[in-house]
C-alpha cells in the first residue's frame, strides 16, 4: 500500500500540471543563419578589430513579431551584438520569415528568411549623428537604436520601440523613417502639497563637502543645484547675526581638550579668557560662545570641519565665519551673475536662551530677540520675497510671535516652519512648565495646531518611516501634515553610512527616493549634489536611458537635467497596437527612477495626434530582478506580457506569460495579472520539439521576447537567441531561434481584427 501511494505521489510530482498549456507546433532556425550585407561583428567595446567575425549579417534571434503578407511573419532582430558599442556594423532590419511548424500532422518545423526590410533614414529625420551619417541611405545600425518591439499598423507602416532613447520610431512599409523619433515624456506626478517637485535645501550649505556654515559651503550648495541654503543663526556680542549651528564655537572638556569645534578659536591665545561654562537649554556646556565675541574678533577666526573623522580636514583654516548679511549678499550675487533665484532658510537657534536665559561671560543678559533680528536684516537687505525665505525653529513661542506680531509689523508674509525632533520637547515648553512634548505636535490635532501659526513642519526624518524587517514603510506624518495644510521638510539626509538607516544598505539615493515617494515638499541634506541629482531623475521632462543621445552629448554632471532616470538600456521591450487600432501601448522594461521597484510603465501613444497621452497603468513584476519580453493585444483592455528571469538552461526558473487587464488596477496603478502559460512546463505529448523530455517541453532561454495572438485558443512565442549566445540548450551550444505554437487551457476573449 505504501509503495503504491509513494509511486502515485512521485508520478504526480513529476507529471506536468493537469491544465498546462500544450505545444501544438514547433519550428526552429539555426543560430548560424546569415543574410546578405556587409561583414559584421568587428567591434568590441567600441574598438574596431582588423577582421570582422562574420562575413555578412547574422539573422539574429528576434525581439518583435507581427503578421506578414501571404502567411509570413515579420520578425524584428534587436540591435545586434549585445551593446551599443559593439553593434556599429549590424544593420537594423525587419525580416519576412516563412514558418512551417512541425505539428501532429507533420511539417518541416523550419523558420527561414524570405526577404528583409532595411531600416534607414534618407530624409534625415533623426536629430543626432548616425553611424552612416554621410551616406545617402543612412542605414540604421545597432549603435544608433536598440530596436526591441514591433507593430504593423493598419496603414501598412511600421512602429518600432527602441530602448536607447527610449523612442518610438515610425517607418513606411519599405523601412524609411517617416518622422523624427518620439521621445518618451515623463508622466511623473508628485504627492507634495502643491503637486510640484520637492525643494532641495543645502543643510548648513553643502556641509558634507565643505566646513558647515561657510560661504564656501553655501556656494557649493548653490553650484550643486540647491534651491535654498540654510544658515543657523546666533548672535555676536555686538548684536550681529552669524551662521553657526550652535552658539558654541568650540566645546572643551574638564581636561581642556577640545571635543568639537567649528572654528579654531581654541588655537588663539588672545581669547583664552573667553573660555567659560554656561547653561544652554538646561544643559551645562563648557567652551567658547559666539555671544562673547564681537564680529571683528570673530573675523580673525577660521572655520574647521566639525566632523573631521568622517569628512577630513582639507579645508580647515581657509574660511571665515559669515554673517546673515554676507549670505544674502552671496545669494544676490549669484542671482545677478546667473539669473538663478536661490532662497535662504534661516533657523533661530535657542531663542529662549538668547532672549531671556542667556548671559554673556561677564554676567550681563544677552536679551536679543532672534526673530526680530532676522526680520530686521531681511528688511534692511531687501530680501523679503516670501517665495525665497522660510524661517524655522525648534521652539514654538518665537514662531507664534513672528506670525502674530513681528512679520505683520514689518508688512511681510514670510512662511514659518516648525521643526520637530524625534524625542524630547520644545525648550520653550520646558522653560514655561508646559508638559507637552514633540510627540504631541505630530498627532493630527497637533499638526493642525502648528498650522495656526506656521506653513510647514520640519520633522526628524525618522518620524516619516517605521522599520518593517529590512524595509522602511511610511508613517502617517506626511498625510496628516498635508491634511493640515502644512508643507513637510524633513532633516537631514547624509551620505555617510553612519547616518543612513540600515535598510538602505549604504544607498543614499534610495533614501532620497523614499522621501520623494512619501510626498515630502522638500528635504534638508548635507549633500545637495546628490539630492538634486536624484530629484532630476523625476523632474526631467523625458524618460531617458543612459544611452540616450542627449545624455551622451550633455554628460551627467550632478544635478544635470538630462540625468538618466531609466536604469540601463531598459526602454520599449513591449509595444502593442490596441484592438481598435487607434493607439499604441508601449511597455518599458525598466523601472523609472522614483517608481516603486519592479513596476514598469505602460505608456499610451495616440496614433491620430502623434502624442503620448499618459499612463495606461503599471505592470508589477513578480520579482524586481525579472524582465519583460513582449506585449501584445487580446482585446480593448486585455494584453499578454512575457515575464522572465535573467537565467538560461538549468538555471532558468521563471519564464511565463501573463494576461493583464488595463481596466483592473490597484491603488498604485498596477494592472491585474493572470498567469496564462508557464514556458518551462509545456505539455508536448507528441514530442514535436527535439528537446522535449517525458512529454514536457521547456523553453529555458535567457531572453524570450516575442508573443502574438493567433486566435482565441492559440498564441505564437519565439526567443531572442542573443547571437552568438549559448546556454539555453547546452553550456557550449549556440542557441537556435525557436518558434512555438501554444494551445491555451482556456480561450481568450479576442477582439475582431486581433489574430490571423
UniProtKB/TrEMBL annotation:
| InterPro entries in the record | GP_PDE_dom, Phytase-like_dom, PLC-like_Pdiesterase_TIM-brl
**Record domain GP-PDE: where:** 198-535
Keywords of this entry: Signal
CDD domains named in the record: GDPD_ScGlpQ1_like (cd08602)
Query: What stretch or stretches form a coiled coil here?
Result: none
One Gene Ontology MF term: phosphoric diester hydrolase activity
Signal peptide span per the entry? 1-20
Kindly list the biological process annotations in GO that this record carries.
lipid metabolic process
PANTHER family in the cross-refs: BLR7070 PROTEIN, PHYTASE-LIKE DOMAIN-CONTAINING PROTEIN
Q: What is this protein called?
A: Glycerophosphoryl diester phosphodiesterase
- Organism encoding this protein: Deinococcus maricopensis (strain DSM 21211 / LMG 22137 / NRRL B-23946 / LB-34)
Amino acid at each position: 500500500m505504501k509503495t503504491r501511494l509513494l509511486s502515485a505521489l512521485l508520478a504526480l510530482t513529476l507529471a506536468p500540471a493537469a491544465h498546462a498549456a500544450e505545444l501544438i507546433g514547433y519550428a526552429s532556425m539555426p543560430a548560424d543563419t546569415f543574410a546578405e550585407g556587409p561583414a559584421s561583428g568587428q567591434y568590441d567595446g567600441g574598438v574596431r578589430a582588423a577582421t570582422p567575425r562574420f562575413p555578412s549579417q547574422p539573422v539574429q534571434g528576434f525581439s518583435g513579431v507581427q503578421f506578414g503578407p501571404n502567411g509570413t511573419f515579420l520578425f524584428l532582430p534587436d540591435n545586434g551584438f549585445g551593446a551599443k558599442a559593439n553593434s556599429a556594423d549590424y544593420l537594423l532590419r525587419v525580416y519576412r520569415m516563412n514558418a512551417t511548424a512541425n505539428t501532429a500532422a507533420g511539417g518541416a518545423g523550419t523558420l527561414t528568411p524570405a526577404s528583409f526590410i532595411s531600416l534607414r533614414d534618407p530624409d534625415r529625420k533623426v536629430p543626432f549623428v548616425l553611424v552612416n551619417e554621410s551616406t545617402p541611405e543612412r542605414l540604421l545600425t545597432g549603435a544608433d537604436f536598440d530596436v526591441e518591439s514591433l507593430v504593423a499598423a493598419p496603414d501598412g507602416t511600421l512602429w518600432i520601440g527602441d530602448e536607447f532613447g527610449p523612442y518610438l520610431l515610425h517607418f513606411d512599409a519599405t523601412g524609411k523613417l517617416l518622422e523624427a523619433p518620439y521621445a518618451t515624456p515623463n508622466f511623473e506626478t508628485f504627492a507634495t502639497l502643491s503637486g510640484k517637485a520637492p525643494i532641495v535645501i543645502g543643510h548648513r550649505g553643502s556641509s558634507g563637502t565643505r566646513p558647515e556654515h561657510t560661504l564656501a559651503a553655501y556656494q557649493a550648495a548653490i553650484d550643486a543645484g540647491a534651491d535654498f541654503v540654510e544658515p543657523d543663526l546666533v548672535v555676536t556680542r555686538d548684536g550681529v547675526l552669524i551662521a553657526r549651528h550652535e552658539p558654541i564655537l568650540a566645546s572643551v572638556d574638564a581636561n581642556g581638550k577640545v571635543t568639537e569645534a567649528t572654528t579654531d578659536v581654541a588655537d588663539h591665545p588672545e581669547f583664552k579668557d573667553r573660555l567659560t561654562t554656561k547653561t544652554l537649554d538646561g544643559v551645562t556646556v563648557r567652551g567658547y560662545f559666539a555671544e562673547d565675541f564681537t564680529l571683528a574678533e570673530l573675523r580673525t577666526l577660521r572655520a574647521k570641519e566639525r566632523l573631521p573623522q568622517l569628512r577630513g580636514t582639507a579645508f580647515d583654516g581657509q574660511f571665515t565665519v559669515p554673517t546673515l548679511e554676507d549670505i544674502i549678499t552671496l545669494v544676490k550675487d549669484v542671482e545677478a551673475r546667473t539669473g538663478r533665484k536661490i532662497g535662504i532658510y534661516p533657523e533661530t537657534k535657542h531663542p529662549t536662551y538668547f532672549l531671556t536665559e542667556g548671559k554673556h561671560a561677564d554676567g550681563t543678559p544677552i536679551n536679543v530677540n532672534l526673530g526680530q533680528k532676522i526680520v530686521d536684516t531681511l528688511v534692511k537687505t531687501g530680501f523679503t520675497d516670501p517665495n525665497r525665505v522660510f524661517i524655522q525653529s525648534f521652539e514654538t513661542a518665537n514662531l507664534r510671535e513672528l506670525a502674530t506680531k513681528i512679520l505683520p509689523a514689518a508688512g511681510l508674509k514670510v512662511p514659518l516652519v516648525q521643526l520637530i525632533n524625534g524625542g524630547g520637547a520644545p525648550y520653550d515648553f520646558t522653560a514655561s512648565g508646559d508638559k507637552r512634548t514633540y510627540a504631541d505636535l505630530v498627532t493630527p490635532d497637533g499638526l493642525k495646531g502648528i498650522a495656526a501659526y506656521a506653513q510647514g513642519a520640519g520633522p526628524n526624518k525618522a518620524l516619516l518611516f517605521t522599520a518593517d524587517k529590512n524595509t522602511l514603510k511610511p508613517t502617517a506624518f506626511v498625510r496628516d501634515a498635508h491634511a493640515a495644510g502644512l508643507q513637510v521638510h524633513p532633516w537631514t539626509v547624509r551620505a555617510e553610512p553612519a547616518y543612513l538607516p540600515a535598510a538602505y544598505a549604504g544607498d543614499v539615493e534610495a533614501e532620497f527616493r523614499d522621501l520623494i515617494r512619501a510626498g515630502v515638499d522638500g528635504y534638508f541634506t548635507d549633500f545637495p549634489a546628490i539630492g538634486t541629482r536624484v530629484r532630476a531623475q523625476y523632474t526631467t521632462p523625458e524618460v531617458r536611458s543612459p544611452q540616450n543621445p542627449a545624455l551622451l552629448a550633455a554628460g551627467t554632471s550632478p544635478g544635470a537635467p538630462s540625468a538618466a532616470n531609466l536604469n540601463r538600456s531598459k526602454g520599449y521591450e513591449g509595444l502593442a497596437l490596441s484592438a481598435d487600432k487607434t493607439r499604441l501601448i508601449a511597455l518599458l522594461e525598466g523601472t523609472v527612477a522614483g517608481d516603486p521597484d519592479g513596476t514598469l510603465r505602460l505608456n499610451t501613444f495616440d496614433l491620430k495626434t502623434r502624442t503620448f497621452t499618459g499612463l495606461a497603468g503599471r505592470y508589477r513584476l513578480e520579482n524586481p530582478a525579472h524582465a519583460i519580453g513582449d506585449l501584445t493585444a487580446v482585446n480593448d483592455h486585455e494584453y499578454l506580457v512575457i515575464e522572465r528571469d535573467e537565467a538560461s538552461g538549468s538555471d532558468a526558473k521563471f519564464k511565463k506569460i501573463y494576461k493583464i487587464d488595463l481596466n483592473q488596477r490597484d491603488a498604485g496603478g498596477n494592472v491585474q495579472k493572470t498567469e496564462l502559460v508557464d514556458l518551462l512546463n509545456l505539455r508536448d505529448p507528441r514530442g514535436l520539439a527535439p528537446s522535449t523530455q517525458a512529454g514536457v517541453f521547456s523553453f529555458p532561454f535567457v531572453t524570450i521576447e516575442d508573443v502574438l495572438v493567433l486566435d482565441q485558443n492559440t498564441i505564437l512565442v519565439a526567443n531572442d537567441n542573443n547571437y552568438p549566445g549559448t546556454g539555453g540548450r547546452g553550456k557550449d551550444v549556440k542557441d537556435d531561434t525557436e518558434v512555438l505554437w501554444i494551445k491555451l487551457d482556456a480561450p481568450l476573449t479576442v477582439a475582431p481584427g486581433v489574430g490571423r
